Amino acid sequence: MIEPVIAATLRPPHRPRALLLYNPNAASTNATARDRIVAILGDGVDLEVQPTKQRGHATHVAAGAVHEGLDAVFVLGGDGTTNEVLQSLATTDVCLGHIPGGGANVFARSLGLPTDQQEAARRIRDALLEGRHRPISLGRAGERWFGFSAGLGFDAAVVRRIEQRPRRKRLLGDVAFVDQAVREWFAGGVGPQPAIRVHGTGGQARGPYGIAMVANADPYTYLGPRPMRVTPDASHDRGLDLLCVGPVTTARILRIIAETFGRAGHARFPEVDYWRDLDRFDLVADSPLPLMVDGDYAGEHQQVTFSAHLGALKALC
Question: Among 57, 173, 210, 223, which has the minimal tally of Cβ within 10 Å of its Cβ?
Fold first, then answer.
């Protein structure tokens, strides 16, 4: 069992130096809003501003901020941009401040940050100036860090379909996820047939399962303003939660989904297995399946080792 980490205080002895990384293609940000955020963050902070240019660029730039000894990296963008920054900031002394600029903004909301961008900017700037941060746990899927969720199989297949159809996502927003989830389910490519086993939760391997979802926070994601509480006991202060669903029918999966948007009582269903506060385990599939981390497609994998790392990130919130 992993013990929670108590919030720490860092008091920088100098005027803080920070980098603002922004995604120019983020769903809910424009140049006017960005200029206002820059003005807020720059009040009392030596601020450098850079746009991301392509996938993976944020990881490279954030690594430079760590090398230069900056105090913080602010991210104005969605969960995908923030996840890229995590790859460089995890286990370092550089703090992360997330300003929601994407669609779901699960990471920022899981930390209790305001959805209003200017309010969030003020909150994380003040935390930096006052030397406050919250050490939170991160998950690791193979070599990839994640801040709130990961999955092997069906949910990752839905993300893969979304990324293959960016125009549909731009046009439909959150509705695109519902649309593609329905199409993936009835296509039968990934999901209904049990193909995943769990190793390392104590005792013999468990399964097979059709769906495996891993979380580092609650909720798992959002559909508009509604939280989807797949793993209702997950927390940034503990290890990873794992929820697996055995052989499922359409009626069963709809019942489970309804519960995740309601009382979250699905963990007691007979077709569901739910493990809490895990430090390490493996998901092993019969053949390569899609992997998702923090809402991003991360390739095809037959076996993935998941591990929890308490206090791996210093979050400004």
Answer: 173
